[in-house]
TrEMBL record:
ATP binds at K130. Pfam families: PK_Tyr_Ser-Thr. PANTHER family: OS06G0639500 PROTEIN. Keywords: ATP-binding, Membrane, Nucleotide-binding, Transmembrane, Transmembrane helix. This is Protein kinase domain-containing protein. The keyword Transmembrane applies. CDD domains: STKc_PknB_like (cd14014). The chain crosses the membrane at residues 606-628.
Length: 682
């Protein structure tokens, strides 16, 4: 293929972008030819001059002396849109990189010039080019495919950075975008104290929530929300500058990758974002966390977790489950929604629509001059978040007439505790309280419908409700076979979270079976047929697998397990993860025989065994002394305390009182009988 064929090839808009890759090497040649054509063609110069108000005087001769047509004309936008854009391809020869303006984990951003020419006009425009880091050749087609899809999805979105096309320059994939005036991050850097007025935060926040909703409606997650990725247009509107590159590159190995930062920028990353296949999956609500962090930064002028290393942030967010601090005194709706953004379990966070509503309902006008009035000290959100289901979780499913419903189980519980509605059908929804109101439920055997608050009910479709534990009929190696159902639509399509998957598994409820539920405080051990568990699992002294206690259930069913029966020293890891498909529940009742029951008792606390051993010795001693005294003729009155002489001790010491050093549960077990044992010195 010669250069002419190559150009006509690209002109064919139906051409699929990844079929172009083998010919990219020729791009440099084609650029030279294009420039020669310009230099020789005075006609084109006069065409330029005819472009009202946007003419350039002479054609550029090098990569750095283009004259720029200010802004991006609507004309160009129309041309791009009307070209059908079935091929988003931009000839690399028409792009001149001028200056690098940023370097991120996924690539560099360049200020560049794009040359566009038709029979009627000839224009040079400033564009921004996001040049992705090099990747293995095998992956290029896959990423191009994703990019082409992203490009199509993003066309016409109002609050998202305008993508002009895709190209490959020097073998690197490039996203060509409109060049914007600057970012919110830049504006903050110039502002006093590095922060913004509440008025601006609410105004920009509303714009951004709109942009995020636009992308979410196309099933695109952004995963990299931060003030430097919020661009400002010529009308001072905030535009989403990152169109979900981390999401796009999910699972694609990059040649130069910092794995800890592959899924976003640490300061803004949600707990599940650090290891989505273990603590995930990532979801729309992952962006709610990033949005919350960005708003906090815009309000305070300091980055969440500023001054902490990546490891420290990981520890704070993922392990200690800490939340960023933010100032009080915000409009109540905004404050509530931001508190919700920092829920550890993403199901309890608001969706972007909820955030948008909260920002929209907080008119900045109510705050006078828009000055930031900081009321009180920083709020620690740890204290604010309550237990139980959040309002945001309940709002995610709107009940409708004819839905089958049942009472919701309390959170962290396997069994329903108050089944006011074991199963019923919605026959009425209160209209004036649509989003969070009462419903009428017809329950079998009860004459009149019950009036119940919608938040206490969950929808049951084909026998399943969100939150149920499910098993995939077909066993798949990559991910666990047991997971948690997150949503079930009325047509039976489902989204399930499984360990091993970074995003939801989507399918039909007919592929699922109910699975045994796990909840906090249950004891679990590896199933006998599990020889190499997915996660590290400790062994007892004898070499058998230890039994642990579930302290948390993650949204994908991953169990966080502690081992109270094992003594932990210093910094040793005290909590482990477990795949629910690999463990079984252990309980006193299910432990057959006295030996197994005793062994299970040892799982409650590491001190049980030494104490019982000590108690056994002690009892033996008591018995020995008693027998000795009987033999020696001394008589103890019935009911009197047993007195044990101890060398060198003065006064009476109640051993039961000494149980204060014991953990309370162990103390209860051992001293439950209320035996009074006294020691005294001779
Ligand atoms: N279309 C654009 N117009 C103007 N400036 C842009 C555009 N896109 C990005 N920028 C700016 O370029 C800089 C670098 O952006 P980039 O997104 O690559 O870096 P980053 O935000 O540091 O890292 P990353 O997003 O990869 O985590 C940012 O300051 C951003 O504001």
């Amino acid at each position: 293929m010669d250069v002419t064929q190559y150009h006509s090839h690209y002109a064919d808009s139906s051409l699929h972008i990844y079929s172009l890759y083998p010919f990219l090497q020729k791009a440099t040649t084609s650029r030279i030819i294009l420039q020669q054509r310009f230099s020789a063609n005075d006609e084109l110069v006069s065409v330029n001059k005819r472009m009202a108000g946007k003419a350039v005087d002479k054609p550029p001769t090098s990569a750095f002396d283009f004259e720029i047509v200010e802004g991006v004309s609507d004309h160009l936008r129309t041309v791009v849109a009307s070209s059908g854009q079935s091929s988003p391809w931009i000839d690399p020869a028409t792009i001149k990189l001028r200056q690098r303006i940023g370097r991120g984990v996924f690539g560099d951003v360049w200020l560049a010039t794009r040359h566009q020419t038709t029979a009627d006009y000839d224009e040079y425009h400033e564009v921004a080019v996001k040049m992705l880091h090099p990747m293995k050749e095998d992956n290029i087609n896959l990423v191009l495919d994703h990019l082409a899809n992203l490009f199509t999805q993003c066309q016409g979105l109002q609050h998202v950075c305008w993508l002009q096309g895709l190209s490959v320059i020097n073998g690197k994939l490039c996203i060509v975008m409109k060049f914007y005036e600057g970012s919110i991050g830049d504006k903050m850097a110039r502002a006093k104290g590095g922060k913004m007025s509440l008025q601006d935060v609410i105004r920009y926040g509303t714009d951004l929530a709109r942009g995020i909703m636009e992308l979410h409606s196309k099933e695109i997650l952004i995963l990299n929300l931060k003030p430097h990725n919020f661009l400002l247009d010529e009308n001072d509107h905030a535009i989403l500058g990152d169109i979900g590159i981390p999401y796009l590159l999910l699972g694609v190995p990059l040649l130069t990758s910092d794995m800890s930062r592959r899924l976003g920028t640490p300061n803004y990353m949600a707990p599940e974002q650090w290891q989505p296949e273990v603590r995930g999956p990532i979801s729309f609500e992952t962006d709610s966390w990033g949005f919350g962090c960005s708003i906090v930064e815009m309000l305070t002028g300091s980055q969440p977790w500023s001054g902490k290393s990546v490891d420290e942030i990981h520890k704070a967010v993922v392990q200690k489950q800490e939340k960023p601090h933010f100032p009080g005194g915000l409009p109540p709706a905004v404050e509530n929604v931001i508190i919700g953004c920092f829920e550890y379990d993403f199901r309890n966070r608001p969706l972007m629509g909820d955030i948008f509503q909260a920002f929209l309902s907080s008119p900045e006008a109510a705050y006078g001059d828009g000055g930031w009035r900081e009321l009180g000290s920083l709020l620690n959100l740890d204290k604010l978040s309550g237990s139980g289901y959040s309002k945001w979780l309940v709002l995610k499913d709107q009940l409708q007439i004819r839905d089958t419903v049942r009472s919701r189980k309390p959170p962290n519980s396997c069994k329903p505790e108050n089944m006011e509605v074991p199963e019923g059908t919605i026959v009425g929804v209160e209209r004036d309280t649509e989003r969070n109101g009462f419903v009428l439920v017809r329950v079998h055997g009860i004459h009149d419908p019950l009036r119940v608050h919608g938040s206490t009910l969950e929808r049951v479709t084909f026998g399943l409700a969100a939150g149920d534990w499910v098993r995939l009929e077909e066993d798949r190696k990559k991910h666990s076979s047991v997971g948690i159902l997150h949503s079930i639509y009325r047509n039976g399509s489902v989204a399930v979270a499984f360990i091993g998957l970074e995003t939801f598994w989507k399918g039909n409820c007919s592929e699922l079976q109910m699975a045994e539920a796990f909840c906090a405080r249950q004891f679990v051990r590896l199933k006998p047929d599990t020889f190499s568990p997915r996660f590290e699992w400790p062994r007892k002294r004898g070499g058998d697998w230890a039994t642990g206690r579930v302290c948390q259930v993650l949204p994908n069913g991953c169990l966080v397990v502690n081992f109270p029966g094992m003594l932990v020293f210093g910094d040793e890891n005290s909590s482990f993860l477990a795949d629910p498909a690999e463990v079984e529940i252990v309980s006193f009742n299910s432990s057959a025989g006295i030996v197994k029951k005793y062994k299970h008792l040892e799982d409650f606390h590491w001190a049980v065994r030494p104490l019982l051993v000590a108690l056994g010795l002690f009892t033996a001693m008591k018995l020995g002394l008693f027998v000795g005294k009987r033999v020696g003729g001394s008589k103890l009155k019935k009911g009197s305390n047993l007195v044990i002489p101890i060398e060198g001790q003065k006064g009476e010491v109640q051993t039961a009182g000494n149980a204060a050093w014991l953990p309370p549960k162990v103390a209860n077990i051992i001293f439950r009988e209320g035996a009074s044992v006294t020691t005294t010195s001779r």
